[in-house]
Sequence to fold (200 residues):
Amino acid sequence: MVTSAELRRRHASPWEAAVGHRFVDELGAGTVDDAVLARYLAQDALFLDAFVALLGAAVAASDRPGPRMVVARQLGLVAGDEDDYFTRALARLGVTGPATPADPTAGFLTLMDDARRSADYPTVMTVLLVAEWLYLDWAERLGDAPSDWLYAEWVELHRGPAFAAWVGFLRDEVDRVGADEPAFARAVELELAFFEAAYG
Ligand SMILES: Cc1ncc(CN)c(N)n1
Fold:
């Protein structure tokens, strides 16, 4: 069975391109153009909805009570603190209505909806793993977050002991139940395209 560590090695090229993307550097410096940040967050609000549904699928599909509870707790955080961040950030950036999905967003929605409908726990957990692990990776590579809450909160939502433990749990689960490598590869590719699309 292929491990999460091996999958990351096998897909290191798009993974490194994503975590080293210009968007991440600008996030760390607090210098993302407002139009770029607005485009990114409007697309990510669409991502968030499908992501919450995917967390729900993991809750439903888990083969053990302990992991089910861990995912359920995280679902509560995403639907709480993270959703609250989106409400405030989109308002500050003047984003009023829902966006039309750009290609990488549409790709992610398909990947997540297909995984959710499959109700296949290894596939669901593999997609969650990439989405969370890749974000932890870029966030941990940044130094002190900018003082502006718009940047600081987005960075801090994706690092720190609790988020690192969540990603550790996802890795342990994928290593326990087995990964879906095509889903892993597609998710990494989409993460890179998602950052790229923010620049229009
Ligand atoms: C596209 C994307 N990928 C991952 C994450 C982190 N959950 C996110 N907010 N957006």
